[in-house]
Design brief:
113 residues, mainly alpha, MerR-type_HTH_dom, MerR_fam
């Protein structure tokens, strides 16, 4: 699974512990996965890269569809929640840009410029 998804074993175990991924155990203790699990890991990675937490992903994952290789909210409620999350990220970006602006002013005032 790690090889096929490019996700290291520790992260796969973490996803399993968080309830995002449900592996089957063989009698020897090894985990087994299906092709659906491989697609699920790709969805998880996409949502993580969008800035969502694993807790939020666990809550939202059942309501995410994939259509023509694109993740989409399957419900209006999920779309609304994702809009709120996007607004939260926008607010963070605004704060970071202001921090950067202030740092730029401080750096510009440094001696030797």
């Amino acid at each position: 699974m790690a090889e096929r998804t490019g996700v290291n074993v520790r992260l796969l175990r973490y996803y399993d512990q968080q309830g995002l991924l449900r592996s089957q155990r063989q009698t020897n203790g090894y985990r087994t996965f299906t092709e659906d699990d491989i697609r699920l890991v790709a969805r998880i990675r996409t949502l993580l890269s969008a800035g969502l937490t694993t807790t939020m992903i666990g809550r939202l994952l059942p309501s995410v569809c994939e259509v023509d290789g694109v993740l989409r909210p399957c419900t209006t409620e999920l779309a609304d929640e994702l809009r709120r999350e996007c607004a939260r990220i926008d607010a963070q970006v605004t704060e970071l840009l202001e921090s950067k602006r202030i740092l730029g002013l401080i750096i510009a005032a440094a001696p030797g410029r």
